[in-house]
Every structure is written in C-alpha cells, then in structure tokens.
C-alpha cells in the first residue's frame, strides 16, 4: 500500500504530515543511538540538527533551490562542521 501512495492522488496534508514524521524520526533515532545504545549524553547533537535545518531552509528560501538538493547541501555542511 505504501508503494502506491506516490501514484495515488494524495492530500497535501498527508504529505506534510509524512515529512514531519520522517524528520522527527531521524532526530529521535539519532538520540536513541546516542543515549540509549552508546550511553552517552551529548548536547552537541541538537546543534548539528539545528545547523542542518537552518542551512537547508536558508538555501531554499534565499536562492530558490530545490529543497531536496538543499537537504543534501545541509548534510554536507553539517558533516564538515562536525568533522572540524
């Protein structure tokens, strides 16, 4: 059924809700891996999530680029700052 969802006429609310569920689940899985499996407490993860979200939103709104492309650029920016 989920494979047919992009083909069927889907309400915009479902798409928006699915985006929120996907984004929040990525953050929650990261927190579970860090605190539950690793047993560590880190407040830096919220900063990296915020940096990725801000850079993606900024590039999308200011330059009018595709949000999917800007998401990849935001990931690269966040990975580079985490590496440094």
From TrEMBL:
Subcellular location: Cell membrane
Bilayer-crossing regions: 20-51, 63-83
InterPro entries linked to this entry: ABC_transp_permease, LivM-like
UniProt key word Endoplasmic reticulum: no
Keyword Membrane: yes
Gene Ontology MF term list: branched-chain amino acid transmembrane transporter activity; hydrolase activity
Entry GO terms, CC: plasma membrane
One Pfam family from the record: BPD_transp_2
Assigned keywords, A-Z: Cell membrane, Hydrolase, Membrane, Transmembrane, Transmembrane helix
Membrane topology designation: Multi-pass membrane protein
PANTHER family registered for this protein in UniProt: BRANCHED AMINO ACID TRANSPORT SYSTEM PERMEASE, HIGH-AFFINITY BRANCHED-CHAIN AMINO ACID TRANSPORT SYSTEM PERMEASE
Name of the protein in question: Metal-dependent hydrolase
Organism: Cupriavidus necator
């Amino acid at each position: 059924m989920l494979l047919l969802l992009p083909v069927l006429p889907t309400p915009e609310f479902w798409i928006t809700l699915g985006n929120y569920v996907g984004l929040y689940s990525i953050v929650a899985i990261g927190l579970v891996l860090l605190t539950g499996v690793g047993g560590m407490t880190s407040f830096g993860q919220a900063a990296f999530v915020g940096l990725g979200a801000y850079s993606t939103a900024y590039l999308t709104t200011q330059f009018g680029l595709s949000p999917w492309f800007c998401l990849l650029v935001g990931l690269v920016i966040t990975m580079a700052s985490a590496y440094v």
